[in-house]
TrEMBL record, chain A:
<keyword id="KW-0997">Cell inner membrane</keyword>
<comment type="similarity">
    <text>Belongs to the binding-protein-dependent transport system permease family. LivHM subfamily.</text>
</comment>
<dbReference type="InterPro" id="IPR001851">
    <property type="entry name" value="ABC_transp_permease"/>
</dbReference>
<keyword id="KW-0472">Membrane</keyword>
<feature type="transmembrane region" description="Helical">
    <location>
        <begin position="71"/>
        <end position="90"/>
    </location>
</feature>
<feature type="transmembrane region" description="Helical">
    <location>
        <begin position="45"/>
        <end position="65"/>
    </location>
</feature>
<keyword id="KW-0813">Transport</keyword>
<dbReference type="GO" id="GO:0015188">
    <property type="term" value="F:L-isoleucine transmembrane transporter activity"/>
</dbReference>
<dbReference type="GO" id="GO:0005304">
    <property type="term" value="F:L-valine transmembrane transporter activity"/>
</dbReference>
From TrEMBL, chain B:
<keyword id="KW-0547">Nucleotide-binding</keyword>
<dbReference type="GO" id="GO:0005886">
    <property type="term" value="C:plasma membrane"/>
</dbReference>
<dbReference type="Pfam" id="PF12399">
    <property type="entry name" value="BCA_ABC_TP_C"/>
</dbReference>
<dbReference type="GO" id="GO:0016887">
    <property type="term" value="F:ATP hydrolysis activity"/>
</dbReference>
<keyword id="KW-0067">ATP-binding</keyword>
<dbReference type="Pfam" id="PF00005">
    <property type="entry name" value="ABC_tran"/>
</dbReference>
<keyword id="KW-0029">Amino-acid transport</keyword>
<dbReference type="InterPro" id="IPR032823">
    <property type="entry name" value="BCA_ABC_TP_C"/>
</dbReference>
<feature type="domain" description="ABC transporter">
    <location>
        <begin position="2"/>
        <end position="250"/>
    </location>
</feature>
């Protein structure tokens, strides 16, 4: 019984982290699916989302507004707006001018953008980590007293609900809406979509904006979950989300969701049964294994060379 | 409606197209033929905006279009196919036709989210048009299949339907009969003629299948090694010595 509870605890912790990785991973995978580049500045967009949310929460607190749903909503909206504009601007400034060149050029541009944004936040907000107020406290507890108890915090539940809503909304948007349909067409054959009169530049911008919005949501959630942010906040999370995207099959949205969850669970199981220090080792070993044995990822389709 | 004057296209040291002129009038099927590597597809690519021609002029309904981005050109009412099928293979048959009408339902995101009556009406119109064309090319039963799973001949027909839902004035077909069996080629033949007769679309055609070309073209342009060789009505082309030489080689 004890062992089982412990296992479930790790599973729940893993799914919590994993679902936020998935939210960030969607941004990587959508951009890759459409223009075939890795947006290495995506982790920074996520970090900026977390900072914006923190600023909004602090601002509301000084105004004396403390009603939780309102605070969360305002923080979420601010983070989404700022990150989306950032995502849009990054594409316009750093990627569009070099689109269609050799693959390495946008990659270097992305890394440059990432360093720029990181250092900008360093300058603007300082390099110390800043505490994130714990807005949602308390937890469910299960199991006998005085022994190991399964605990699910309300924060974890909030994370589950919000990520689930975001992912459902995204899935519906992609499969049902007109713009979503155009996104799929552009990701399959950009040239043909353009010939049929779709303004591909607008669709590419939309992809960056959607990816950034989801990253901002993840930024707010993980900021609250970890309780602090710093300018390097986006670096490791970005790397993990990228791993999740590759694990699931880069270019595939369900793949990114699955990859995120698997990665999160693998990490928390490692922390729970081995040692917390090994969790990154396991995460990146998974990446290497997947690249060795199934380079297209779990749900990625093999690319068939057309003749 | 389409006028190509002295078109030239140079790739580095290679002059792929040299002083080619083609014109298409309203209500006309015009073919471009020539041996492999003659530069037919390059001409197409210049017209549809894939390449920026290095010389010459392309006028569509009196407006210069050379060097304009492809989506602008297609919005003017000119749409093309490719030698190989380029459907959105992971999308369903009907989605392929809906996405082609993307620009027709030109509304903003907000209208889409709120599903305004105007937006719904437009969506319905595009669905009706898609259904009409699926029926016209005999693919209505396949509407919800993935386009990539259709048989080759069906994919070819779907491509033409996808062009037609955009309501083009000029349809450019690059080897539409490639890979089709004789029966399918005959069906295609009838379809193309009907597009001209019933829907008043002009057609510019590249094709190797001589029976198809000779049967349906109003005029034919022959190019060889990037240069214009002959142009005229099918019967004139059939008897042209230069054309016969280019096709059969000189003895």
């Amino acid at each position: 019984m004890q062992d089982l509870l412990y296992f479930f605890q790790q599973l729940i912790n893993g799914l919590t982290i994993g679902s936020t990785y998935a939210l960030i991973a969607i941004g990587y995978t959508m951009v890759y699916g459409i223009i075939g580049m890795i947006n290495f500045a995506h982790g920074e967009i996520y970090m900026i989302g977390a900072y914006t949310a923190l600023i909004a929460i602090t601002g509301l607190a000084t105004l004396g507004i403390a009603w939780l749903p309102l605070v969360l909503l305002v923080a979420l909206i601010c983070a989404v707006i700022v990150s989306s504009s950032m995502g849009w601007a990054v594409e316009r400034v750093a990627y569009r001018p070099v689109r269609g060149r050799h693959r390495l050029i946008p990659l270097i541009s992305a890394i440059g953008m990432s360093i720029f944004l990181q250092n900008y936040v360093h300058l603007a907000q300082g390099s110390r980590n800043i505490g994130f107020p714990a807005l949602i406290e308390g937890s469910f507890r299960m199991g006998p007293e005085n022994t190991f108890q399964l605990s699910i915090s309300y924060m974890q539940i909030t994370i589950f609900i919000i990520t689930l809503v975001c992912m459902t909304a995204l899935s519906l948007f992609i499969s049902r809406s007109r713009t979503g349909r155009a996104c799929r067409a552009v990701s399959q054959d950009l040239g043909m979509a353009s010939l049929l009169g779709i303004d591909t530049n607008r669709i590419i911008s939309a992809t960056f904006v959607i990816g950034a919005a989801l990253a901002a949501v993840a930024g707010l959630l993980l900021g609250m979950y970890y309780g602090s942010v710093d300018p390097l906040f986006g670096f490791i999370a970005g790397l993990k989300a990228f791993t999740a995207a590759v694990l699931g099959g880069i270019g595939s949205i369900p793949g990114a969701m699955l990859g995120g969850l698997i990665l999160g669970v693998a990490e928390s199981m490692t922390s729970g049964y081995l040692s917390g220090e090994y969790k990154d080792v396991v995460a990146f070993s998974l990446l290497i294994l997947i690249l060795l044995f199934k380079p297209t990822g779990l749900l990625g389709k093999p690319e068939v060379e057309k003749i | 409606m389409l006028e190509v004057k002295n078109l030239s296209m140079r790739f580095g040291g290679l002059l792929a197209v040299d002083q080619v002129s083609v014109d298409v009038q309203e209500h006309e099927i015009v073919s471009i033929i020539g041996p492999n590597g003659a530069g037919k597809t390059t001409v197409f690519n210049c017209i549809s905006g894939f390449y920026k021609p290095t010389g010459g002029q392309i006028l569509f309904e009196g407006k210069e279009i050379q060097g304009k981005p492809d989506y602008r050109i297609s919005r003017m009412g000119m749409v093309r196919t490719f030698q190989h099928v380029r459907l959105f293979g992971n999308m369903t048959v009907v989605e392929n036709l809906l996405v082609a009408q993307h620009r027709h339902v030109n509304t903003n995101l907000l209208a889409g989210l709120l599903k305004t009556p105007d937006y719904r009406a437009r969506e319905k119109r595009s669905l009706d048009r898609a259904r009409y064309w699926l029926n016209r090319v005999g693919l209505l039963d396949m509407a919800n299949r993935e386009a990539g799973n259709l048989a080759y001949g069906q994919q070819r027909r779907l491509e033409i339907a996808r062009c037609m839902v955009t309501e083009p004035k000029l349809l450019m077909l690059d080897e539409p009969a490639a890979g089709l069996n004789p029966a399918e080629t005959r069906e295609l033949d009838q379809l193309i003629v009907s597009l001209k007769e019933d829907y008043h679309v002009s057609v510019l055609l590249i094709e190797h299948d001589m029976s198809l070309v000779m049967g349906i073209s109003d005029r034919i342009n022959v190019i060889s090694q990037g240069r214009p060789l002959a142009s005229g009505k099918p019967e004139e082309i059939r008897q042209n010595d230069d054309v016969i030489k280019a096709y059969l080689g000189e003895a």
